[in-house]
Amino acid sequence: MEVTASMVKELRETSGAGMMDCKKALSETNGDMQQALDYLREKGISKATKKESRIAAEGLANIYIAENKAVILEVNSETDFVSKNAEFKDLIATIGQALLKSDAKTIDEANEIKTASGETIKELLIAKIAKIGEKLSFRRFMVVEKTADEVFGSYLHMGGKIASLVVIEGTDEEVAKDVAMQQAAMRPEYTFIEDIPAEVLEKEKAVQKELAMNEGKPADIAEKMVQGRIQKFYKEVCLNEQVFIKDNSLTIKTYIANHGGKLKQAIRYEVGEGMEKRNEDFATEVMNQVNGK
User: Is residue 186 within 8 Å of 245, Cβ to Cβ?
Assistant: First the structure.
């Protein structure tokens, strides 16, 4: 039976599932609307779609490394309760291992990667949403490769609420881990001075000049003061320029150089950063889990 646009539209409105999922369901069931609905429910697609509008800003980040390749990723859940579940942690591991074996650059590409079970990442998420009963979201990832003379440094804080990955040339993993821990703890916005956008730097200079002039300094003196204050700004926002938390006589750049190395790359994921959070207390969260909401 031919699957028409009006049939797909009707099934979409009834199930809330996506157009391609509805078209496939109708094709698989020879155009039978009820069977197509059952198909979507069995696959967890209908249930998963209904949860799309819900907020998923909890979850975990993790890092997986295999020889000269590493992946850092974040997967979100609606509640912290679910993020502590072994099944959720296994889900992240499955996605992470699949990404390590892929060349995916975007979430869309990653969602089509086959996992060890034969399902794509997208299909696996849909199945887990149906089983766990919460919206789950594969938010972001980055695959990082290093050369033979570089090392990875990785660190997870609070069981995966913060994940920090660095690549350092010419030194050892102990130094790299120290730098990864620094990045996790001190929340630098940038890795290097060169990473600061020009508009951000100009705005900071204008703010500092205004502050100096409000202190009664002449414009020429204020301008000179800005240069010193910008150096302090660099130490606050750039990982490479920060004071090393284990030895405040050193910057990160100097600490690495003292061990024969140079920082090449740094990535930090903090779960839910920049996302809207659910406003719900823990007792309600637990009851919702118990009641299957």
Answer: yes
Between these two residues, 219 and 146, which has the higher pLDDT value? 146
Contact 56, 136 (CB under 8 A): yes
What are the contacts of 199-203 at 24+ separation with CB within 8 A?
201/230
Burial profile 123-152: b = 16 or more Cβ within 10 angstroms, e = fewer: bbbbbbbbebbbbbbbbebebbebeeebbb
- Tell me the β-bridge partners of 168: 151, 263
> Distance of CA 55 to CAs 12, 47, 52, 279, 293, Å?
22, 15, 8, 10, 13
Q: What is the pTM of this model?
A: 0.76
Domains of the chain (ranges; CATH) run 5-50 (1.10.8.10), 58-183+269-290 (3.30.479.20), 193-266 (1.10.286.20)
